[in-house]
Amino acid sequence: MSRPALLDRASFVELRARARAEALLDPGTFRELLGPFDRIESPWLARQGVVPQADDGVVVARGTIGGASAVAIAIEGAFQGGSTGEVSGAKIAGALELALDDCKAGRPVRPVIVLDTGGVRLQEANLGLAAMADVHAAVVALRAHVPVVGVIAGMVGCFGGMGITAGLMSRLIVTRQGRLGLNGPEVIEQNAGLEELDSRDRPLIWSLTGGEQRRAVGLADELVADDADAIAEAVRKAFEAGRPLEHRSERIDFWRDRLRRLPAEPTGPALRALWTGDER
């Protein structure tokens, strides 16, 4: 009896951030920067009774992708829901800014970010927001030189300010398990009530913000199975495709037209029926 193909896959979703970054880089090239033994952690969490993490929940590694110099950044969703604070945000922005310096000096670097985050870390408030702004600015500056590739695999998904970061990517790769939005389901339910959204209704949530839906309506570029090798290959192909002629976030009139046609109470199937036929 043949072995089911599913069992031959190495799940990317089940990997922790460090293993995810290593999986995206060419074998044997992973070299971590500011790792846990450097003890670069948030100075604010312990004061609020939260145990900090020595890498502040972000892994930054240099290596190669498809033989070309690369930087892989992975957010650890298991630490504080992947939330971005002062230190973790500075690690992301700093890595992108260094890649930008290399690109300007004629040494292109391929940047990829694994997004598994609920957004800004509430315990660090404005510090997290400021760091998020630095990340956004760095992505926009860097994508003028090389594609900036994002991956949303799960388990947390990608929400809040990092949802905006995902929208700025040159290419965005998702799995069915991944989710993408600005406000997370729990936040919507808490502020608008069950009548607006039931965060426990998993089929509803994934029909609106799941990776398959986001790819279908044009908010992501590639839907890939939860397989580490397949995702790494999709990342390599994204870089080989080069920079898009126009980034998704630059298509202002296109998105305004879509918003004008948005139903009063949109559902996943309604959005897909309305938007799937549009040119991308």
What does this structure look like?
The chain has 280 residues and is an alpha/beta fold. The chain has a single domain (10-250), classed as 2-enoyl-CoA Hydratase, Chain A, domain 1, CATH 3.90.226.10. The chain contains ten helices and seven strands. It has helices at residues 17-24, 86-104, 125-142, 161-168, 185-192, 202-209, 211-216, 228-240, 252-260, 268-275, and strands at 31-33, 58-65, 68-75, 110-114, 149-152, 171-174, 222-223. Strands 1-2-3-4-5-6-7 form a seven-stranded mixed beta sheet, sandwiched between helices. Strand 4, helix 3 and strand 5 (149-152) form a beta-alpha-beta unit. Helix 2 (86-104) runs parallel beside helix 3 (125-142) and helix 3 runs parallel beside helix 4 (161-168). It is globular and about 50 Å long. Keywords: Lyase, Membrane, Transferase, Transmembrane, Transmembrane helix. It is an enzyme of class 4 (lyase). The chain crosses the membrane at residues 148-169. Residues 1-253 form the CoA carboxyltransferase N-terminal domain. One of its GO terms (molecular function) is lyase activity.
**Largest sheet strand order:** 1-2-3-4-5-6-7
Question: What Rg is obtained from the alpha carbons, in whole angstroms?
Answer: 18 Å
Name the poorly predicted regions. Answer: 1-7
- Fraction in helix: 25-40%
In total, the number of domains comes to 1
Largest sheet report: 7 strands, mixed
> Helices and strands: which structural class?
alpha/beta
**CATH architecture field:** Alpha-Beta Complex
Q: In the CATH scheme, what's the topology name? A: 2-enoyl-CoA Hydratase, Chain A, domain 1
* Name of the level-1 CATH class: Alpha Beta
Overall pLDDT score: 92
Give the full name of the CATH homologous superfamily. 2-enoyl-CoA Hydratase, Chain A, domain 1
Q: Work out the helix count.
A: 10
Determine the N-to-C terminus distance: 43 Å
